[in-house]
Amino acid sequence: MPESQNATADQSAPNDLISFPKVIPDGRFRRGVRYPQWFLLLVAVLGILSGCRSSRDLERFARRHREALNQALGLDYQRWPSDATFLYLYRCAEA
After folding, report:
1. C-alpha distances in Å from residue 68, one per residue of 76, 80, 88
2. CA angle at residue 38 from 34 to 40, to 5 degrees?
3. What confidence tens digit (pLDDT) does each residue in 36-71 have?
């Protein structure tokens, strides 16, 4: 049975959720950036999948799951991203 084109395309694509946001260009100014864009996008995706509907919901999600995210991703953030951080990210995103 011949391989489909989708199977060939999937071979070259990254297999984890973290690799996708890391390749998106960051449109924010470098000064004052506390969190990498890939982390904020990952938190936003996980929050939206968990039912978050606003930037305030995302802030609460990040606060509630900060320790688990730090442990799972090997990070050491002492604070969580605010709702304004998510709004700024969306405003500066090149989509």
Report:
1. 11, 12, 24
2. 60
3. 999 999 999 999 999 999 999 999 999 999 999 999
